[in-house]
User: Fold these one by one.
Assistant:
Number 1:
Amino acid sequence: MPPTDKHQQLRNLPGVDHILENTKEDERFFEIPRKVILESIRSILESIRQDILDNHTAEIQDNSIIEQTLEAARERIKNRLVPVINATGVVLHTNLGRALLCQDALENIQTISQSYSNLELNLATGKRGIRYSAVEALICELTGAQSAIAVNNNAGAVLLALNTLAKDTEVVVSRGELVEIGGSFRIPDIMSKSGCHLKEVGTTNRTHLRDYEQAVTENTGLFLKVHTSNYKIEGFTASVGLAELSCLGRKKNIPVMEDLGSGTLIDFSKYGLPAEPLVSDSISSGADVVTFSGDKLLGGPQSGIIVGKRETIEKIKANPLTRALRIDKLTLGALEATLKLYRDEKQAIRKIPTLRMLTMSYDQTCKKSEALEKQIKKVIPTARVELADLESRPGGGSFPELKLPTRCITIRPENMSVARLEKSLRQASPAIIGRIEGNRYIIDPRTIQTGQDEIISTTLEKILLKK
Ligand SMILES: *Cc1c(COP(=O)(O)O)cnc(C)c1O
């Protein structure tokens, strides 16, 4: 483009006000805030100006600019946090939001947030109440603990318990339990942030009671056990049980804490899954304090639950850090509603999505996959869709190594690569997140929710048939 043409084009470019005026009558812009429309017009005009300067051909008709503005404005106002379809089979997928809340929890969030509540008012006395009392008795009933408190998340619970019980003292931990969870939570780091000094004992694969015993000095403040929730050491191994360690703690007058990570209230071994540590077992082993997550195996909202002996929990409640980590009312409402379901285990399994998905039988996954396969073949008869016996993973740092037998859907696209199919599904609306194995795209039915089959098949139809 010769320079004179460039200048001519730049001069012909409409002004911001002119485009803005044009959007006023257009009802597609009615719902969009004026500020957003203005920003969008400016950015579109700027990019056209740049195109002209860079010698590209540019569309400078009003209509084209208005259409581009509309697209840019819609992009600006759309939510960034959006639902996605989890077709990975990973039940507790931290990147996809971990536990899905049960209906009771959702309803209670609405009830509690639409109205004022007795969050910190004791209705019996009319005096100031304690926010944790909504869940404390229930947690104690379900775990056998004397006292309990819930905070923002389990990382916070660990930080708070360490800081309360062992600030400026040595905390004895086995070398086999210095875990990292998801990169941002590492036992040595949380230890130093809580003001404690880590005293490692034993070796990676073997730690004995005498290792703990020999590590005790006048400056020892706590024995800590950490559930190695996301990996397993196999072979020539030895570790000290919580009951044994609690015994030593009593003898030496040193408190004992366990970070259970996921921690569960029901015995999964009854449902054909490996046994994950029960919170009630840790309590009856004599630990002074036990921490676990609300949104892992419990299947509730993000929260950290601290249970234990009365005096220990009282000290934790009095720590000023507790205020900084306090649980909000929505979470508290969701947690109470979820915990209530655990009074009847059958009901908990039926109503709490995490438990339902984890205990879903292989036969049930076959039924789900067959139905989805049929639905996909109905809209894309030519698709290379097959069923295959594969495995789902629990995720969320629970059940290390466990693979759940699942019948999955596999797709081998004909006119594009599997990587391309994965990307297109991920960028669809709603996004569908699956996995690739070899040259197949895998859709795992275990984590697909009711009503999502049709969305999956129509999205596949759009992508594979390029509609
Ligand atoms: C997951 C986990 C944590 C962190 O819990 P969040 O609820 O994610 O904060 C801490 N310790 C262990 C052992 C865990 O598995």
Number 2:
Amino acid sequence: MNNDGWVKTTCAYCGVGCGVEAKPKSNGLLDIRGDKAHPSNYGKLCTKGIALGDTVITDGRQLTPVLRRKVATQSTDQPLSWDEATNLVADKFRDTIEQYGPDSVAFYVSGQLLTEDYYVANKLMKGFIGSGNIDSNSRLCMASSVVGHKRAFGSDTVPIVYEDLELAELVVITGSNLAWCHPVLFQRLKVAKQNNPSLTIVVIDPRRTATCELADLHLPIQPGSDVSLFNGLLHYLSESGKLDQHYIDHFTEGFDSALSLAAEQKDTLSETGLSQQQLDDFYALFANNDKTITIYSQGVNQSSSGSDKVNSILNCHLATARIGKPGMGPFSVTGQPNAMGGREVGALANTLAAHMEFGNKRQHTLIEEFWGTDNLATKPGLKAIDLFDAMEEGKIKAIWVMATNPMVSLPNSDKIRSALEKCPFVVVSDCIKNTETAKLADVVLPAQGWSEKSGTVTNSERRISRQRRILPSPGMAKPDWWIVSQVAQKMGYEEAFQYLHEGQIFNEYARMTTLDNEDGKQRDLCLIGMTKLDDKGYSALTPQQWPVDTLQSDLSHRRLFSDGRFYTDSTKAQFIATKYQPPLLTPCEQTPILLNSGRTRDQWHTMSRTGLSPQLGTHTPEPYVSVHPATAEQVGLEQGAIAQISRNTTSIQMRVHIDSGIEPGQAFVPIHWNGATASNAKACSLISAYTDPLSGQPEFKQTPVSISPWSKRSEALVISHHPINFDGIDYWVQQKLEAGYLYRLASKSGAMKLIIQLTEKLASEGNKTLTYSADENGSLHRKAFMTSAGIQSAFVVKDCIDDDDLDWLAQLYQARLDETIELQFMSADA
Ligand SMILES: Nc1nc2c(c(=O)[nH]1)N[C@H]1C(S)=C(S)[C@@H](COP(=O)(O)OP(=O)(O)OC[C@H]3O[C@@H](n4cnc5c(=O)[nH]c(N)nc54)[C@H](O)[C@@H]3O)O[C@H]1N2
Ligand SMILES: Nc1nc2c(c(=O)[nH]1)N[C@H]1C(S)=C(S)[C@@H](COP(=O)(O)OP(=O)(O)OC[C@H]3O[C@@H](n4cnc5c(=O)[nH]c(N)nc54)[C@H](O)[C@@H]3O)O[C@H]1N2
Ligand code: SF4
Ligand SMILES: [Mo]
């Protein structure tokens, strides 16, 4: 802590990993500012980072462990002590393992966990339970990049440092909406371009996104065609004499077969849907700029050919020796705050810990000795999609979900529901009470959240930073590492899980990275310089970029592969021959529109934290589907109407947003809204679980759907001090306000029915109501529910709501109760 009460920590959100300073306020919230000394952001923050202080409210938190019993559609919660809860979980897991074997249980974890949490969960499952069945939501996020890196480099390594963005002459951004998803990197790029007007930026994305603001060239490629584009580039580089033959000969293998497959490709134009001019422009830029960075994210990873997309990019960088040098390199920007940390400690089903691998006998023995176990898993476990499939088939009998919400974020939501319902024992550790997944749990365990928990995270440039405890935890919430360790001890593994604080876990992990690797020659993930950290050192730890041979006191920038040495058996980088494959599903007559899904600027995933900030709610208050004007006209959609998006027998509803930045025949929806914040607006309800065969990452970005108008007959706005359950109303969306919640509703029934429904839902809100009805048909109806303390809730029902209604409602809510308010209504009923 500084003298003036500011505590240094790291942002809760994206993989940029910005340093944050936070200071408690007298109202229990936090003042927030960027940490100027943090080398990843130098004091800058984006809208989400700035709003962190608003999100530490305790609304909706899970406060105690509970046993949740579901009877029909109702569930009742029985509070448990921590001792009872951890005994119960340990007993159930142990009994299940005894009866059905270790592969009948599983953990599904998350890049929202800290490295210490992740490490302990992986140690318990792989090291002591003896199963590989621990997988992470990173499977949905970074798995294709992991495969791509390992195939090319022999290690899961991001070679660049952020500083390279400022040193580059060409930045290619493909499948990444950097402006919204990694805003501080985008800001750094913006400043770099101001300082160096010759810096050229190319954006490759089927949509024209906010990131295109900086683009000198935007290539709206055909969805899924990245391999074709980059194969074409490899061939072009060869034809135009731009290969670095010396580098290819000395530091790589497999070039000839990669080039010959790329050269065989004849249909680059039709596959990518680009013009010859667009291709020529991009290829010439790439060929003529040595200092090139290629940034890529989910438009690349989340694909049935995600691994090949990644390698087709890496091939072009290897062929031009643009790796490991200032201003050059491929850059897989990570999604979550600690996606990287999870990959490091091995919380994906197909790796061991500390970048050690299944199938390597020596490493297997080293880990068994280090952990003092004879039960280390010998084979990879089930990847996320396969895991939930196995659960649905009854093969997984106990699952523990930590810090992720698979009911919202995994494809095929109906199947996920059915899998969780069939699983005999479901444990969910979360901060929030009523996530869609927690509703299906047998036991819910209250976890500490950001600002309460303490440990480390690793960002997209391999920089390890501390998240620090600033506020007390509400209720009985505990750190995830503590919860897992308690269960592990009660399962009989007392000795291996005796941690008193997170620093001890970090120390163990740091030592593990040095096994057979004190000089970092076997594995680049080597933290030998951190193994001597004592409690004080851990507590005061400043950001460290791995590999860490000695503790870094300066702002170090450590690029990898500068010496042309890789972690493959031959120490040479590998070219991978890639061939374009279209997305697995193609539009047809019933489902003619290709649905893309992704993020909005101010919401984070399932909105459990960002949804609490009134400020963040204003950017995009309602879920929307973007379509091109021509598509809108074709299917009869108007701006601001509600659309129904359907596939097979499932439909969702979202507001229509007409956008000429999206191609005709395509649509885009945000991933954030779900049962906690909207009636029926979950993208994953429509998306099938088609995956990349190597990475297991789902094809989230290309799903054929049909879109049609959703005809409503009436609409309403409701404002209330606390959340209201609108089950039974056809369409609703919740938005957090300073003093409560705003709901936008719509109904297939006429206004009268909606008025009756709302009056019933809100009846308990006040003992006095004020009513205004414009005419007998009820085409405008306003009602407020009051107590002596003032207006508790109010609604407007109309055939078609407009902005005036919203203004009126907002004013009413904020106004003091006096005669002028009463005069706005026609009658008052006590
Ligand atoms: N505001 C905000 N920021 C976030 C997050 C958040 O929830 N909200 N989440 C974080 C996480 S976990 C992640 S993983 C990252 C994700 O960050 P991004 O990957 O940047 O975000 P997305 O919106 O999922 O998708 C990126 C882009 O890929 C494009 N795309 C779709 N198909 C293709 C294709 O075939 N080829 C190409 N080249 N592009 C395609 C989409 O149109 C979209 O604009 O964001 C992180 N940052
Ligand atoms: N259609 C579609 N689906 C997608 C994607 C897409 O682009 N399109 N993107 C995918 C990607 S890249 C990702 S990363 C996933 C994200 O999907 P999820 O992981 O499901 O999303 P989150 O909302 O981040 O879920 C985190 C949960 O953990 C809780 N939590 C936060 N901190 C802690 C903690 O410290 N401990 C515990 N125990 N709980 C905590 C939060 O309250 C929240 O409920 O979605 C994937 N799904
Ligand atoms: S860029 Fe990412 S890490 Fe930085 S403040 Fe924004 S959300 Fe947080
Ligand atoms: Mo992600």
Number 3:
Amino acid sequence: MHLAHFPRIFLAHLPTPLERLDRLSRELGGPEIWIKRDDCTGLSTGGNKTRKLEFLMAEAEQQGADTIITQGATQSNHARQTAAFAAKMGMACHLLLEDRTGSNDPNYNGNGNVLLDRLHGATTDKRPGGADMQAEMESLAETLRAEGRKPYVIPGGGSNPTGALGYVNCAFELLGQLNDRGLAVDRIVTATGSAGTQAGLITGLKATSANIPLLGFGVRAPKEKQEANVFALAERTAEKLGCAGVVKREDVVADCDYVGEGYGIPRADTLEAIRMLAELEGILLDPVYSGKGAAGLIDYCRKGKFAKGERVVFLHTGGAAGLFGYDAALTRGH
Ligand SMILES: *Cc1c(COP(=O)(O)O)cnc(C)c1O
């Protein structure tokens, strides 16, 4: 498996640190918890989309694109990292933002990631919740082509086989760190949304026979749908890499019991997880993804699903810029 065969623009700050969370581990009294800091990828406050964009933007450049189109929720971290990457490459960037939460909070709609999208010079356009965002992007691409532009369309979350290569790479990077430090790990957990992160990781882990189970904590879809999405993308990613069939259906595990009311709506345990990591470890999570992933991790520790003596790595996918769009939820009752 040779990632260097694929075009890539090296922009992320890699490798991201792997750190032990002593105070959180002690507080929970269960497994030894480590964190892989993909919130520190360096681009416009960091996050997991930067690894995917290294491969996606290289493909865009190779195809002669001068304009990038992508989509996400209003407080999309993916949209913000894409806007920053496009700025770095001197490309125009059009973001279609879907109003999934229906919030009319001015900070949700204009602060946090949205503020940064605009600072990076991206054009932002809203679409109502439930819109067919892929079709919206295709129609915008058509309009821009008619104007003589060369648009490159990135799917939501950068989750296609090209983007997932970024997380195949992360699996290799993490394994290297574990091997260099003699750290045997029992499991890896992460938030899972548009599926590229989990699909890339599981492909990399299986292709190297790492023998480390991976658990995704869902943020939107129910378990069956989430696992099917991740598995389908992992299959296509393995095919792209020349190791078709390496991921089995049972390797893809998601727990979607921490979603709550829906995408982008934090629960009490999401907010508790954000506060715990902030107060115990000085680490910022986010209310949409990593906060829900960490809430799952904390609950599993408390319930003894992750036993004492185990070593668990939490992949921190970033998203802290979104905190500034969710200040109302975080300050309520404080
Ligand atoms: C996009 C995102 C995720 C989910 O990753 P997917 O590859 O979409 O599954 C997790 N955390 C943060 C902060 C994100 O922005």
Number 4:
Amino acid sequence: MFCKCTENNTPQTNNLSTGLKQVGDKPFVGETPQNALNSWLTPNPLFYVRSHFEYPDVSDSDRINWSIYIDGGDGEVKKITMKELMRMPKRTMAVTMECAGNNRSDLQPKVSGNQFDSGAVSNAIWTGVSLSHVLDQVNISSDSVEILFEGADRGVPEQGYGESSYLRSLSLDIANDPDTILAYEMNGEPLPIEHGFPLRLVVPGWYGMASVKWVKSITAIKEPFHGYFQGKKYVVRYENGKEHPLTEMQIKSFVTSHQHGESISNGPISLSGLAWAGRARVKSVEVSVDGGKTWDNATLNGPSDTYSWQKWSLEWVPANIGHHTLIAKAIDFNGNKQPIESVWNELGYALNGLKPVCINIV
Ligand SMILES: Nc1nc2c(c(=O)[nH]1)N[C@H]1C(S)=C(S)[C@@H](COP(=O)(O)O)O[C@H]1N2
Ligand SMILES: [Mo]
């Protein structure tokens, strides 16, 4: 891959009330600003927000008063309160969450949907209870095939559709994985409303759509679920007619230490960035400072938690002044390599192609 520098330095405008870079309005959608992507942990106010409907009606007292309803498929519905959930064994994990539409604005030809740059991805430490532990409290009917989750938010997802809530299902395997949690804390604080207060699902390693916010009911179902947010959206549809539903985040890395169009004085330069690979571990990150002609191995600085992105770094002494194109490329332990180009698909999902950053050494 050979990349030429292009002069494109549109300054970012952050939404003053949130600190996020606003991408959508009503409901609010915002991405993490570039400068905040330089840190391993994303502070709650800078964690990207993606909601399809306005926030549901919740109040502070729901931290204790909220209840979820679990229907195991045998006709009996069990109510579990937040108080009870918080008394169950706690599970705390660092999990990176990426919206499936991250980097959609790079796609050519353009597709509709939120035009995210690189900031629809963030990393937080989540605390909650294993979903499997909660499911163990009820009798799950033996002919169940999936577990369905319903958020308390409602609306019309698209013109021509009726009003519905946000619904997504998980296979029994993923639902019973002890790392799939119902989270009530984010970075040591109660979940902020925009991130699903008082209770949300966190499905580590998967694109964000699986992590249902404002969870109010959980149902064991006997047929696979194909609702709007599972059958119509969050399906990758390629030009050749092939399609598959989104699951794990694809391997990805990018440069966060420098911004496109930046000028830097000549001298030793510390390059750094982030890399992640769904439920796999990142094996190496290669970095090019010449638009892809030559590559060097970056140092992986970690932390290498199973489900969080890792920081990488590389010291570089430019041989000459002028334009240089920086590119990062990740490889994971399952042999997956970040592709040079994202593969175009109808709804603009899972875009993990290389992301060149052009800087000027002066
Ligand atoms: N109830 C509900 N859950 C939801 C959504 C939603 O609109 N409603 N959006 C999903 C999508 S597409 C993403 S990317 C993540 C975003 O989580 P965040 O806003 O906490 O970053 O939540 C998911 N869970
Ligand atoms: Mo998303």
